[in-house]
Amino acid sequence: MVHFSKLFILFCVLCAFFPTRGEAAGTKFGIYMGTGGLNGIYYPTGKAMCKAVNNNIQISFKCAVKSTHGSIENIEKLRNKETNFGIVQSDVLYYAVHGYGPFKNKGRFPQLRTVMSLYTESFTILARKDSGIRNFNDLKGKRVNIGSPRSGGRTSMDLVMRFKGWDKSVFSKALELTPAEISGALCDNKVDAIVSVIGHPNAALKKEAAACETVLVNAYDPQIKAMIHKFPYLNPIRIRNGLYKGSPDSTMTFGVESVLVTTESTPRPTVIGLIRSVVDGYSDFIYSHNALQAVTKEMLAATDEITPLHLGASQVFKK
User: How far is CA 170 from its chain centroid?
Assistant: First the structure.
């Protein structure tokens, strides 16, 4: 009689060679999308798009998301062919196409193609109320989280600092916390202010503002206005009042668009299938996150202002 342990070993070996039910033959992940941190908006937005694709019985491929540090890492993964779609800020997309800023060493990435526009992201400063910070210049001499190095928010902060003629030495402490590390930092008195580029309303900011006394900070002055005027991907934005406890007034700042991008080598049917799935499941998509609820179907139609539309996107949006 064969010993039970030998049978168990044989069973394990066979399992290694045959797919499980969830990995059945014919399952093809045609979309692998770079998103953002688990506590941000990119990740649930990507999941909502993938859910629309995976629920579409008319297409044969499946969609999966990958949590990342955000825009810059998503561009890098596209360049390295680790993913084939990514959600990025429009300013980071501009830098990638031209080989500027964080992409200076690796050079231009002209193969990038736009698929869809998503929502507006605002340059946002949330400060402890007792810090006395009420405008951007008040950040001098304070403990400020300027963003993790590979994030889109950090890219925007670096641009503002360049226009101001600042470097990290203007702060008493410049922190580079990831989105996961930001949680509780203000209320634990680890920082005086946190800088991010996000869609509103934001659940993490709501939680922080409810836990201790905070205030949204205006980031709009002559130097920032000149910066907006220079770059076509920037727009003045007003964060409406009452979204967060402690900020009863509207807040003037600037912002960018979040866009879904791919490369020119992605098959046209894949792009068409993704866009049509999101449009057909539009109601489920916009109600998957508060930041998406102001997005209209017309807003999903991307432009070629920064980089050309993918041929699949061009075909869908022309109709």
Answer: 28
pLDDT by residue (tens digit) across 112-160? 999 999 988 999 999 999 999 999 999 999 999 999 887 888 889 999 9
Cα separation, 84 vs 65, in Å, equals 11
Residue type, 180: A
Residue 2 buriedness (CB in 10 A; 0-12 / 13-18 / 19+): exposed
Which sequence spans correspond to the domains of the chain? 28-120+258-318, 121-256
Q: Does domain 121-256 have CATH number 3.30.160.100?
A: no
Cα 51-201-75 angle, rounded to 5 deg: 55
Closest to 86 (Cα-Cα) out of 97, 71, 102: 71
Confidence of residue 293 (pLDDT cuts 50, 70, 90): confident
Report the 10 Å Cβ neighbour count for 34. 27
Residue 61, classed as helix, strand or coil, is: strand
CATH architecture designation of domain 28-120+258-318: 3-Layer(aba) Sandwich (3.40)
Residues 175, 145: contact at Cβ < 8 Å?
yes
Q: Whose structure tokens read 């007003």?
A: 238
Residues forming a β-bridge with 34: 66, 86
**pTM for this entry:** 0.76
28-120+258-318 and 121-256 share one fold: yes
Q: What is the pLDDT of residue 182?
A: 85
Q: How far apart are alpha carbons 95 and 141 in whole angstroms?
A: 30
